[in-house]
Design a protein that fits this description.
One of its GO terms (biological process) is DNA transposition. With 101 residues, the protein is an all-alpha fold. The protein has three helices and no strands.
Amino acid sequence: MPDHIHMLVSIPLKYAVSEVVGYLKGKSSLMIFEKHANLKYKYGNRHFWCRGYYVDTVGKNTAAINAYIQNQIKEDLEYDQMSLVEYIDPFTGEPVKKNKK
């Protein structure tokens, strides 16, 4: 399950990076809580995103970074499929039901 996101964003010079990140985090968490109301119980304090963030400049690498982000989705999906395990009891050959938490 993904626990972070990658974004390639162009920010006009008149905006501070912290303003844009704050806006994106704030607006997206409101939209997520609106669409998935059950998450309000898990994140009762309404802090969906962590406090920090990482920012870097792109320069001439824009195409390479964009390709990395696009391929990351594919790689994450492939990894998720590889991590799916069917649990079989070695003695009975029966599927083992996992306990729900």
